[in-house]
Amino acid sequence: MHTDISIRMATEADAKEILEIYAPYITDTAVTFEYSIPSVAEFSQRIRDTLQMYPYIVALEDDRIVGYAYASAFKKRAAYNWAVETTVYLKQDCRGRGLGKKLYFALEEILKRQNIINLNACIAYTLDEDAHLDNTSTIFHEHLGYTKVAHFTKCGYKFGAWYDMIWMEKMLGEHPSNPDPVIPITELQVL
Questions:
Q1: Which of 23, 83, 111, 159 has the most crowded Cβ, counting Cβ within 10 A?
Q2: 70, 55, 73: which is closest to 21 by C-alpha?
C-alpha cells in the first residue's frame, strides 16, 4: 500500500536528495546524455538558476523525495518566452505508480499560471532497445498528450552506442495574437 504523495517547490537544500535520484540515470542509462554526476554544489546551482524563472517541484512520500520535475527555457531569445522544456525523473523503484503523471500535471498547472503555452520534451530514443535505453519516456509523454515533432538520428553517444533524440511537444492553450507576458515563478504563490 502506498502512502499519500505531496508535491512542493524544491529548494537548494534538496539538491543532495534530488541528485541521488538523478545519478543512476547518468551512470546506468542513456536517458540522459550527461556522462558525469555533478557535485551537490553544482546541482544546487542548477536548482537555484531554474527557480529564478521556472518551477522546480518535488514529490514526497513519507518525507522523502521520490521524484522531481522542472521547466527550463526552451531557447533564451525573447520570442521563445512562451515555450519551455519539461523534465521529470523518478526514483528507480517508484516508476510505474503514476508519480510522473502527478508531477507533470502539477508542473503544467503552474506553467499555465505563468502564461506558458508550449511544452517541449527532449527525449533519448532508440530503434533497438538495450540495457541502457528503452522508449518508456516516449510512451509516457504520448500518454500525457505530447506528440513527436522532431527526430535526430544517432546524435548522442554513450556506453559505446549511438542513440537518437526526439523532441515532443504539448500545447497548454491557444496561441493568441497578443499573448500575456510570462510571469516569473518568483512572482507567483504556488504550492
A1: 111
A2: 70
